[in-house]
């Protein structure tokens, strides 16, 4: 008897653990317990999961939103754990409760899981168990249940009887006319999805009525969602029906009093274009685009501008170029000088792509002047969007025209009297070089990059140094040795000590990229020459440079050339020079000792270098010289 009792107690243990953890004050423990539901369900078995676990979860749904969200997600994957599709109806009660909670994220997840469970039902069980749940939610007292109901119609509509279909359409119509804006918002957000599964005659007679009513709602949060519904319904209806049933609603949107509705119209412009076809696009959507591009709100103008490229690509190929040149370019031209930086940067990113559609001649005649304006714009994002897309312009007009038109403007900016303008161009130079290639860069732009290194402004010299590093990484050490290193080394003989220091800064960051040979053969002699510079700032930067490049040099070179220079600097009359030289000597010595140690210590499996040092010290014989403190 005691054995049987023990067996029963063992079988009850998982559910006891779950109950205890779900009641724990610690939210994380409750959350972990929910995430282990599948394991507990397997331990309980299918029958006890249906008879004990699911009822328990249904009765105790009151917790933190994070826990309820995890529960809603878990229940959507529970069909196999309750015995398969024939028992899927057992999952509906807890999910129905979750679909009524206040937190929208939890409700959405519960609706998603209910849709998964609905697909597991056969048609008969769907009518018996799922549809009544939908109707209860749709007629609930709280708006939360009614909003959740809106997402369940499309999943079951096609699988129920004609009588139930009529009731479901009536239920949805009631929700579209609900007194609560949140419910109407949920209804219009699912209107297009539901429209895709209803019969075409009911779409024309009932759903269009709902669409028109919701598109004229007094809440802009409802009206803006009607635009997506228009696009989805337009994809279903024949062309003649679209013109008479959908277009009257769409024509109101670009002139809506709410900027959010106009913004949503701009965002959905391409989807609508694909849905309504070329004829309606020409008559209605191009004027709508004009209106949006001239909107009083910058957000709307930017959204419309971002869609111009895709809109142009989807125009009828026969009249595509003509329509762009006559109906779109004039409006874009105005946006190039817009007062809002975001609008200007958006249109800059779009303009470079239009060239491939309108061809070389039109690009040179109409777009190049706009590019030149944008290259000189005060907003850095505008300049970046042009410069970072030069390759697209190059593909259309060719390198010759590009060098004759845009590059003079870039070179003019590179020598601008305002240092911040020069700084902006420096940042884009690696991008320009990668797009135009090494040969073109050497012919047109290399001199400018070298010239920046002896600029009067430190920020420019610093940026030019980093720019040189990126160029060498891009074109390689051999290119650097031939094309730029001789010019950098020439700075070491400049009369201005600031430019001699710039030479050292360049050597610092180029040494690792260029490698040991170039550093030893070209960089080190120049550093040695500057070690005797009359300016102390140059001398202590020599010490810092030697410390930086020493890991790249061979130990023999360090001993024969680097150490003598540092020893000399360590005896310098200037305190700062001595300090930096002393620091460099210590750092280089430590690096060399570690290199020797790494070479002599055998690899210790699974141990770091620090553990290896401890292991070596532990095996070393104890010293008898108490006065010797050396390791």
Automatic annotation (TrEMBL):
One of its GO terms (cellular component) is nucleus. PROSITE patterns: HEAT_REPEAT (PS50077). InterPro entries: 2AA_helical, ARM-like, ARM-type_fold, HEAT_type_2, PP2A/SF3B1-like_HEAT, PP2A_Regulatory_Subunit_A. Residues 87-257 form the Phosphatase 2A Regulatory Subunit A helical domain. Pfam families: HEAT_2, PPP2R1A-like_HEAT, VPS15-like_hel. Keywords: Repeat. Residues 278-358 form the Phosphatase PP2A regulatory subunit A/Splicing factor 3B subunit 1-like HEAT repeat domain. GO terms for molecular function: protein phosphatase regulator activity. This is Protein phosphatase PP2A regulatory subunit A. It comes from Stomoxys calcitrans (Stable fly).
């Amino acid at each position: 008897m005691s054995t049987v009792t023990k067996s029963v107690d063992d079988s009850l243990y998982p559910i006891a653990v779950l109950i205890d953890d779900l009641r724990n004050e610690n939210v994380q423990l409750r959350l972990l317990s929910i995430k282990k539901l599948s394991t507990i369900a397997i331990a309980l078995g299918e029958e006890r999961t249906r008879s004990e676990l699911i009822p328990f979860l249904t009765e105790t749904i009151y917790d933190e939103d994070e826990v309820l969200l995890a529960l809603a997600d878990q229940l959507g994957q529970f069909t196999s754990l309750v015995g398969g599709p024939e028992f899927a109806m057992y999952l509906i009660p807890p999910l129905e409760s979750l679909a009524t909670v206040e937190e929208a994220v939890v409700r959405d997840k519960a609706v998603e899981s209910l849709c998964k469970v609905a697909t597991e039902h056969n048609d008969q069980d769907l009518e018996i168990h799922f549809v009544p749940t939908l109707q209860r939610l749709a007629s609930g007292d709280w708006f939360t249940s009614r909003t959740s109901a809106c997402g369940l119609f499309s999943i079951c509509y096609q699988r129920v009887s004609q009588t139930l279909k009529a009731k479901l359409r009536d239920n949805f119509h009631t929700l579209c006319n609900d007194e609560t804006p949140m419910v109407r918002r949920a209804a219009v957000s699912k209107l297009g999805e539901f429209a895709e599964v209803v019969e075409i005659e009911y779409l024309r007679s009932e759903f269009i009525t709902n669409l028109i009513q919701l598109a004229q709602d007094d809440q802009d949060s409802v009206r803006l969602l009607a635009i997506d519904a228009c696009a989805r319904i337009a994809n279903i209806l024949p062309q003649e029906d679209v013109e008479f049933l959908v277009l009257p609603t769409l024509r109101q949107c670009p002139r809506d009093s709410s900027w959010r509705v106009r913004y949503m119209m701009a965002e959905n412009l391409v989807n609508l274009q694909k849905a309504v076809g070329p004829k309606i696009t020409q008559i209605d959507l191009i004027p709508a685009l004009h209106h949006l591009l001239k909107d009083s709100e910058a957000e709307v103008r930017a959204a419309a501008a971002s869609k111009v490229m895709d809109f142009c690509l989807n125009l009828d190929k026969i009249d595509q170029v003509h329509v762009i040149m006559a109906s779109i370019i004039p409006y874009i031209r105005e946006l190039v000088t817009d007062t809002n930086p975001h609008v200007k940067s958006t249109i800059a990113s779009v303009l470079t792509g239009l060239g491939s559609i309108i061809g070389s001649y039109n690009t040179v005649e109409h777009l190049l002047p706009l590019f030149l304006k944008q290259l000189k714009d005060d907003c850095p994002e505008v300049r970046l969007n042009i410069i970072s897309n030069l390759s697209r312009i190059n593909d259309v007009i060719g390198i010759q025209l590009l060098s004759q038109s845009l590059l003079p403007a870039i070179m003019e900016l590179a020598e601008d009297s305002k240092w911040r303008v020069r700084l902006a161009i420096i940042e884009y130079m690696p991008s320009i070089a990668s797009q135009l290639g090494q040969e073109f860069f050497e012919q047109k732009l290399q001199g400018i990059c070298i010239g920046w290194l002896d600029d009067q402004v430190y920020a420019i010299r610093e940026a030019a140094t980093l720019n040189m590093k990126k160029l060498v990484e891009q074109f390689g050490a051999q290119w650097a040795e031939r094309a730029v290193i001789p010019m950098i080394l020439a700075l070491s003989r400049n009369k201005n000590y600031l430019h001699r220091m710039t030479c050292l800064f360049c050597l610092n960051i180029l040494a690792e990229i260029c490698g040991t040979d170039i550093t030893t053969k070209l960089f080190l002699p120049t550093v040695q020459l500057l070690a005797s510079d009359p300016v102390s700032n140059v001398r202590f930067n020599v010490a810092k440079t030697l410390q930086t490049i020493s890991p790249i040099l061979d130990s023999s070179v360090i001993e024969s050339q680097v150490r003598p220079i540092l020893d000399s600097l360590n005896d310098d009359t200037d305190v700062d020079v001595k300090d930096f030289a002393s620091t460099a000597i210590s750092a280089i010595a430590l690096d060399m000792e570690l290199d020797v140690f790494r070479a002599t210590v055998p690899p210790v499996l699974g141990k770091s270098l620090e553990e290896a040092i401890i292991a070596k010290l532990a095996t070393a014989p104890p010293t008898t010289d108490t006065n010797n403190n050396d390791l």
